[in-house]
Specification:
Rossmann fold; 12 helices
């Protein structure tokens, strides 16, 4: 039943894309596009709360009303009212690995069997799930060859979407939202809604969906069993080895520079040697 449900959800998602591309102006739809594990669920819920419109998650049926559609689609020039959210790809791969390991350890998790199959395909049947640092180099390489939950890898997704000359898209980073959620949420919502937003609506949404409110933990406190493991920008430095850094740089170092996360390739040399 779970497999059938997932197939129906996937079909519904494709139909939503088709509807949005052709008739999205009529509803209208608002879009939060991202590469997986970049914070899109968080941003979508805040936007929906500010605008007081639904944010359907894993819908079995196509959406036929004004809504925020959170998606991982590739770039489509026909979509309007788009917020494109991006995140440091090094944090993305770390978050993705911990996400799989969380389901791998929990036999009751909905995606347990899928996670076991995925990790065994990458690492074989014998690997240490408690040593993510040693797993990262191979995981990074595999996630670029076989993207998790997307047709494009992180680098190609950014390359397709990120073009500041596209005035119909508002760009925001996960790091900006963590540093100053009020200012950047306002900037995003006012851009896609096309009108000023009252201060109290922004304040309420930021408070309602803060990490502290959602998890009962302060930002930076880790819980590897929770969907929101840590939520701390820059956590990759705690898990990358020199080998991981080199692998990532070879695959998408240019995108890190394009987005301003690094000025050049020298960051690789600053990462500590393998322990």
């Amino acid at each position: 039943m779970s497999r059938l449900r997932n197939i129906v959800i996937a079909v519904s998602h494709r139909v939503n894309h088709a509807i949005g591309a052709r008739w999205g102006e009529r509803f209208p739809f608002y879009y939060v596009s991202e590469y997986p594990k970049s914070g899109g669920t968080w941003l979508s819920k805040m936007i929906g709360d500010v605008l007081q419109i639904p944010v359907p998650q894993r819908s079995l049926f196509p959406i036929g009303c004004t809504a925020v559609l959170h998606n991982h689609w590739g770039y489509d020039a026909r979509l309007r009212r788009v917020a494109y959210l991006y995140r440091d790809g090094r944090d993305v791969v770390v978050s993705s690995l911990f996400h799989l390991l969380r389901h791998y350890r929990d036999p009751k998790a909905p995606a347990h069997h899928e996670s076991v199959a995925h990790l065994r395909r990458v690492f074989g049947r014998t690997f240490d799930p408690d040593d993510p640092r040693s797993l990262l180099p191979r995981f990074i390489a595999d996630s670029f060859r076989h993207p998790l939950g997307n047709r494009l890898n992180w680098g190609d997704h950014i390359r397709a979407w990120h073009d500041p000359s596209r005035a119909h898209i508002v760009y925001v980073s996960y790091e900006q939202l963590r540093e100053d959620p009020h200012a950047h949420l306002r900037r995003v919502v006012e851009h896609i809604a096309g009108r000023p937003i009252e201060d109290w609506k922004i304040d309420m949404a930021v408070e309602k969906f803060s990490i502290e409110r959602q998890t009962g933990r302060k930002q930076g406190q880790e819980d590897r069993s929770h969907f929101i493991r840590k939520g701390m920008p820059g956590d990759w430095v705690n898990h990358f080895s020199r080998e991981s850094a080199q692998v990532f740089h070879d695959l998408a170092g240019d995108v890190l520079i394009q987005l301003g996360y690094e000025p050049d390739a020298s960051w690789v040399e600053r990462v500590g040697a393998d322990s």
